[in-house]
């Protein structure tokens, strides 16, 4: 039905490409491209049912990207590279004339600040070109936006309070490791917290607001208020929301390591001179930490991610909790990757599938919650991320 080109060769890409290959009736031709072709070749070698082409490309180089697009002629480019590269890839898509999908919004290389405004600015250019750009099609952002849209469509007349809760109750048996790109992960966690309330954004010191929350099949876990990108789009697209927050769990050992990393300067994103050459401390740290893509084999436990929503239905207050629990071990057995990669890679494939089928396809730049949530929710159940609903329960928040 369509030709898809995936950029990036990390853990999320491993899952997405393997799941794309499992849906070969929709994806007729597949290519995975990255700065390091050997990583792409490794992914392709594990796929037996269809041939996956591979290529080397610098995702910061628009001309290189356009040349690759001209050679492969994709119908959709799935960007699973670094957030710094989003705009370069979107520029290349416009230059060639191909639609676009990503899982994380743009942030500048020299500042730990991510927001959608840079990508939303491309809306008219994609409209004029008749191309679709789907933003934030992972789990959070991604599934959490679809959950919210589904709740608004089926269960609420008015959503008033939204809390996105993200728990990783897994154990990778490493002293310290991040579940996705360490550079992006640490930048995200160490910035100031931010949440939306009564029409304005309020900031907190990093990880200063926290409380225990109970997660299904997991139990109580200390959960920390952070800023996360989908809050920006969800408060825009659901203007009845009075308060929106994002919570994530961290173990004390992880937080201790993180505090040491910050205190000794290894979380710095500005370049320093070392032995006569420039290095960025956090990029060096990334090189010595465990590769997130290699954590799956010994990973136990599960993730639990969902939306806790309070609002009005038929004039009465309603509480609603929709969530997914994902086993790290089950994810590894299916794709060779751990659960955090799985929960991001599967939704990316689903968004790409719905685009190829013409279900999620309209000119412009869109966040996932702006599409019909029903076909996506159906695919989640069929593709390995089944969801569950609880009504009129204590949301704890």
From TrEMBL:
Residues 4-134 form the Saccharopine dehydrogenase NADP binding domain. Residues 138-385 form the Saccharopine dehydrogenase-like C-terminal domain. It comes from the Bacteria. This is Saccharopine dehydrogenase family protein. It comes from Parabacteroides acidifaciens.
């Amino acid at each position: 039905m369509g030709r898809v080109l995936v950029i990036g060769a990390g853990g999320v890409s491993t899952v997405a490409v393997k799941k794309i290959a499992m849906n070969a009736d929709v994806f007729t031709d597949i290519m995975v491209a990255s700065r390091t072709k050997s990583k792409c070749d490794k992914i392709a070698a594990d796929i037996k049912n269809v041939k996956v082409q591979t290529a080397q490309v610098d995702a910061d180089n628009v001309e290189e990207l356009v040349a690759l697009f001209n050679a492969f002629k994709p119908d959709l480019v799935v960007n699973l590279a670094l957030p710094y590269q989003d705009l370069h890839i979107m520029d290349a898509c416009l230059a060639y004339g191909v639609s676009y999908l990503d899982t994380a919004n743009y942030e500048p290389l020299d500042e730990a600040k991510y927001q959608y405004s840079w990508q939303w600015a491309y809306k008219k250019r994609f409209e004029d070109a008749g191309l679709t750009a789907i933003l934030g099609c992972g789990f959070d952002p991604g599934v959490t936006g679809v959950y919210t849209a589904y709740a608004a469509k089926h269960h609420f007349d008015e959503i008033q309070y939204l809390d996105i809760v993200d728990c990783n109750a897994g154990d990778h048996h490493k002293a310290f490791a991040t579940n996705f790109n360490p550079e992006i992960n640490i930048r995200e966690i160490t910035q100031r917290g931010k949440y939306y309330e009564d029409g304005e954004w309020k900031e907190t010191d990093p990880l200063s607001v926290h409380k225990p929350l109970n997660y299904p099949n997991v139990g109580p876990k200390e959960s920390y208020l952070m800023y996360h990108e989908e809050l920006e789009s969800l408060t825009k697209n659901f203007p009845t929301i009075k308060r929106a927050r994002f919570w994530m769990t961290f173990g004390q050992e992880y937080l201790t390591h993180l505090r040491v990393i910050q205190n000794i300067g290894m979380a710095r994103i500005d370049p320093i001179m070392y032995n006569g050459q420039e290095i960025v401390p956090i990029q060096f740290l990334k090189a010595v930490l465990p590769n997130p893509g290699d954590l799956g084999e010994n990973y136990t436990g599960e993730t639990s991610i969902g939306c806790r929503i309070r609002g009005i239905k038929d004039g009465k207050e309603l509480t609603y909790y929709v969530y997914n629990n994902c086993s790290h071990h089950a994810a590894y057995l299916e794709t060779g990757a751990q659960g955090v990669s799985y929960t991001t890679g599967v939704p990316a494939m689903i968004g790409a599938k719905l685009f190829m089928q013409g279900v999620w396809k309209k000119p412009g730049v869109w966040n996932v919650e702006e599409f019909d949530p029903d076909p996506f929710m159906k695919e989640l159940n069929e593709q390995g991320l089944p969801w569950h609903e609880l009504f009129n329960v204590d949301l704890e928040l």
